[in-house]
Design goal:
Layout (H helix, E strand, L loop, with lengths): L11 H9 L9 H13 L3 H13 L5 H17 L2 H7 L2 H11 L8 H18 L7 H11 L24 H11 L3 H8 L17
Organism: Colobus angolensis palliatus
Pfam families: VHS
Keywords: Protein transport, Transport
């Protein structure tokens, strides 16, 4: 039914996802990825529009560089966006029809894509296990394990918090932290050494209702 909604890349967030996952990019555009997260968090249609665009970029795409960029965008959004987006991503339908479908043997995905998908499913299943409305991904994960699928060894450094709350610190510092959450440990070390540090300032503790 997606075709009835028009081109997924025509929405504001869809346009940015198209750019952020373009095969001509040599590496991730982290500033654009963060902008995508902001649109998802700040607009009513952002979560649904973003997921439609990610799905279009991944499903049936034989350009696995674009698929990897899309998976990175998806991972970054899950770590930086809220419950409205999590409900859609963690649904059985999305995990099965987009992520699991991508790694079916008939699609012959490279190992890097195969392992990335399994890592996402595994980490989300672990993170969302205690949330009743987010357990679709848990069901898929446990089903895949029962069928004998081997998941990559869990790297605890990769399991950064799914949602990084915004505190009253500077925007520059906040965006640096958000980008670092989205990276692998090795990339974190590289990027952290190149990011300009804003002057330290005391941050009030973040309180939750």
């Amino acid at each position: 039914m997606d075709f009835l909604l028009g081109n997924p890349f025509s929405s504001p967030v869809g346009q940015r996802i198209e750019k952020a996952t373009d095969g001509s990019l040599q590496s991730e555009d982290w500033a654009l990825n963060m902008e995508i997260c902001d649109i998802i968090n700040e607009t009513e249609e952002g979560p649904k529009d973003a997921l439609r665009a990610v799905k279009k970029r991944i499903v049936g795409n034989k350009n696995f560089h674009e698929v990897m960029l899309a998976l990175t965008v998806l991972e970054t959004c899950v770590k930086n966006c809220g419950h409205r987006f999590h409900v859609l991503v963690a649904s059985q339908d999305f995990v099965e029809s987009v992520l699991v479908r991508t790694i079916l043997p008939k699609n012959n995905p490279p190992t890097i894509v195969h392992d990335k998908v399994l890592n996402l499913i595994q980490s989300w299943a672990d993170a969302f296990r205690s949330s009743p409305d987010l357990t679709g991904v848990v069901t898929i994960y446990e089903d895949l394990r029962r069928k004998g699928l081997e998941f990559p060894m869990t790297d605890l450094d990769m399991l950064s918090p799914i949602h990084t709350p915004r505190g009253p610190c500077s925007t520059q510092r906040h965006n640096q932290d958000r980008i670092l959450w989205a990276l692998t440990p090795a990339s974190k070390r590289t990027l952290a050494s190149t990011l300009p540090l804003c002057p330290p300032r005391p941050c009030s503790p973040v309180t939750h209702p």
